[in-house]
Amino acid sequence: MPEEELKNMARMIDLNRQRLEQLQDQVSRLEIVQAEAGDVETSLLAMSRLSNAAESAHSDKKENKVMIPIGSGVHLPTTVEANTTAVIDIGSGIFAEKNPDDAATIIRTRIIDLGIIITELNAEAETITKKINEMSAEFNLAAQKMTGSGAAEVGVTMPPFFEDNVTESTTEGGKDTTSDQKKQPKTARRRGFGGELTLDD
Questions:
Q1: DSSP collapsed to 3 states, 146-170
Q2: Domain boundaries, the chain
Q3: CA 68 – CA 79 distance, rounded (Å)
Q4: Residue 171 has pLDDT above 50, yes or no
Q5: Using 50, 70 and 90 to split pLDDT, how confident is the model at 134?
Q6: Three-state secondary structure of the chain
Q7: Using an 8 Å Cβ cutoff, are 80 and 50 in contact?
Q8: Which residue from 89, 117, 122 is spatially nearest to 103, judged by alpha carbons?
Q9: Residue 25, exposed/middle/buried by CB under 10 A (0-12, 13-18, 19+)?
Q10: For residue 158, is pLDDT > 60?
Q11: Most distant CA pair in the chain: distance in Å?
């Protein structure tokens, strides 16, 4: 396999790993949003129970205390009266006043939709991981054949920095130092995620 093709393969592995990191970051963010939505749903259902209790109570003061989460672990103390409502974004920046049960239903739908997206992203991440492993294994084999020096074994997800031993040949004081580099590989330049070649190379 030509040296340039090896470089291109290393770059493709690097790009796939960058995409994998992006997917993992997106999944983490969506899971946080999903968890926050779950807290809101729980609060809305609690509001619904308190509102119903206040409506059926034989008392002039039909209200109950409740803590509403507003994010980052902060809760807002408030009261729930009979027939209380919540204002919720129903899409496109349009807000509507809903009773707690209806608002909780909307939030539950969003939680389900987020779960579907998370599942799809995880499936894509799994596909990319498999592709990285296959490309890395092919890269390792090609690099070892090219060096012919019994390169050290590495995991299939960590292709070797083959330029250390193959592609560099410098001149110092008119003397070719290629053979010295084969005996003592120079320190690799900046590596990408997992140790593969980066676009800087």
A1: HHCCCCCCCCCCCCCCHHHCCCCCC
A2: 3-150
A3: 10
A4: no
A5: very high
A6: CCHHHHHHHHHHHHHHHHHHHHHHHHHHHHHHHHHHHHHHHHHHHHHHHHHHHHHHCCCCCCEEEEEEEEECCEEEEEEEECCCCEEEEEECCEEEEECHHHHHHHHHHHHHHHHHHHHHHHHHHHHHHHHHHHHHHHHHHHHHHHHCCCCCCCCCCCCCCHHHCCCCCCEECCEECHHHHHHCCCCCCCCCHHHCCCCCC
A7: yes
A8: 89
A9: exposed
A10: no
A11: 101
More confident residue, 2 or 137: 137
**48 token code pair:** 């619904």
The answer regarding whether domain 3-150 maps to CATH 1.10.150.170 reads no
Record the tokens describing residue 110, joined without a space. 């969003």
Reported as a single tens digit per residue, the pLDDT across 43-65 is 888 888 888 877 776 554 555 67
Question: How many of the other CB atoms lie within 10 Å of CB of 175?
Answer: 8
Measured CA angle at 113 (ends 69, 34), to 5 deg: 30
